[in-house]
Design a protein that fits this description.
By secondary structure, this protein is mainly alpha-helical. The protein contains 20 helices and no strands. It has one domain. Helix content is 77%, strand content 0%. Helix 2 runs parallel beside helix 13, helix 7 runs antiparallel to helix 8 and helix 14 packs across helix 16.
């Protein structure tokens, strides 16, 4: 049955079917082929997966990002970062990295960050004479920082699937996210200095920088408030998501005064549609996961690995290779939901903490977001920068190196994420 699921899923993808529909088609084909599986039981498993209190955090965090970044605040943040680092070697590209790091503490979505930041930065970098492919590469890779810096939608999905603590996962994702940001900043500086890339205009006045900083403080405080509330147990992740939406609404309407009824409606619709897509993928993935468990595929896979691969480091390497490969073809939320039931028993058999596995999985799958042939942020930024995919991939080489170094640390040095 597992082989049938794989074949139908791959065939559906080859026909350009959306990932959620491809998963559902594979589940229905597998259930129809086995008379021991009634279809109503499959539907029950799908519905049960989304009847989860922690999942309420997803639409609220998405709404928070739309409210905070849809107005003048995003322009102020970019202006502040441009004034601070725009004149450095590789400064314009470093603005992309820093913007992704800051925006990631609000939206938790790599695709949303790549789109929003790209609309603000890529035209500016093009006017400076920056290589379009390098601009696209810097943004495509740095946009994935947002799925490690809290709030992270993929980490929420992993926590629900693995029955792990969302708060602990959020805290564990901070350091790897900052390491990626630091590494990408170094790549931008090195490339800017070695290649003599254009720099930003004359530095802004101290008064302008001060005004932009004061204007941006409410947005800069939001990630800090999320971490503090979770770290000290003042609220659950779902409660934090609701509070962050309330915070964003108050800040946008009272401080920035740019929250109109029209923009609120647009933000609610955007968050609702995006959440609906995610929840549909969750339901379809739940059906696949239940069928694979019914077929005992995770147990068979773990037994095969244990009988053929004895060293713990080799098991971790094998999981990384498989996640990297699958992340190139499967959308990140679906990959998290599908791979967690498979790799969790294997990780536990070698004594790996589920929190470490979750962060390792997200770092792996994040690399897939800017890796051909299905890299989402790769295609978004290349299109916005008007750069060829092949050119952008060549510019991504040093960014891949940084990501792999961080992946090795997360995989083999638990102290880098577990405190």
């Amino acid at each position: 049955m597992s082989l049938l699921i794989l074949c139908v899923f791959l065939a559906a993808l080859a026909l350009a079917m959306p990932i959620g529909h491809a998963l559902l088609a594979a589940a229905l084909a597998a259930a129809a082929s086995n008379e021991r599986i009634p279809l109503d039981l499959l539907v029950q498993q799908m519905v049960a997966q989304v009847q989860s209190f922690p999942l309420i955090a997803i639409p609220f965090f998405m709404l928070t990002g739309s409210l905070m970044m849809g107005g003048r605040l995003g322009q102020a943040l970019v202006g502040l970062l441009s004034a601070l680092v725009g004149r450095w070697h590789g400064g314009p590209a470093q603005v992309s990295v820093l913007s992704s790091t800051v925006f990631g503490g609000v939206s938790g979505s790599a695709v949303a960050d790549a789109t929003a930041i790209g609309a603000l930065l890529l035209p500016w970098q093009r006017r400076l004479g920056y290589p379009p492919a390098f601009s696209a590469a810097a943004l495509a890779s740095s946009a994935t920082i947002s799925i490690l810096i809290p709030p992270s939608i993929p980490l929420i999905l992993y926590a629900v699937t693995a029955n792990a603590s969302i708060a602990t996962l959020f805290l564990a994702g901070v350091l790897p996210g900052l390491l990626l940001a630091g590494g990408f900043l170094a790549v931008c500086w090195w490339a800017g200095k070695r290649r003599g890339l254009p720099r930003g205009e004359a530095a802004a006045s101290l008064g302008q920088v001060r005004r932009d900083l004061v204007y941006s403080i409410p947005a800069l405080l939001l990630p800090v408030l999320i971490v503090v509330l979770l770290r000290f147990g003042f609220a659950t992740p779902t409660e934090v998501a609701v509070l962050s939406t309330l915070y964003a609404a108050v800040v946008s309407s009272v401080i920035y005064r740019d929250l109109s009824w029209r923009r609120l409606l647009e933000a609610v619709i955007e968050a609702g549609v995006t959440s609906g897509v995610v929840l549909f993928v969750i339901m379809a993935s739940a059906a696949i996961g239940w069928l694979l468990t019914f077929d005992q595929m995770p147990q068979h896979f773990a037994q095969w690995v244990q009988s053929h691969v004895t060293a713990a480091w080799a098991v971790v390497a094998l999981m990384n290779v498989l996640m990297l490969f699958l992340g190139m073809f499967i959308d990140l939320p679906a990959a998290v939901l599908l791979l967690t039931p498979v790799f969790l028993p294997l990780a536990q058999s070698i004594g790996m903490d589920p929190i470490q596995l979750g962060v390792m999985m997200v770092v792996n799958l994040a690399i897939g977001l800017y890796t051909p042939p299905m890299g989402t942020t790769l295609f978004i930024t290349s299109a916005m920068a008007r750069a060829g995919i092949a050119q952008t991939v060549r510019e991504l080489a040093p960014f891949y190196l940084v990501a792999f170094v961080v992946l090795v640390l997360v995989s083999y040095v638990p102290a880098s994420i577990l405190k």
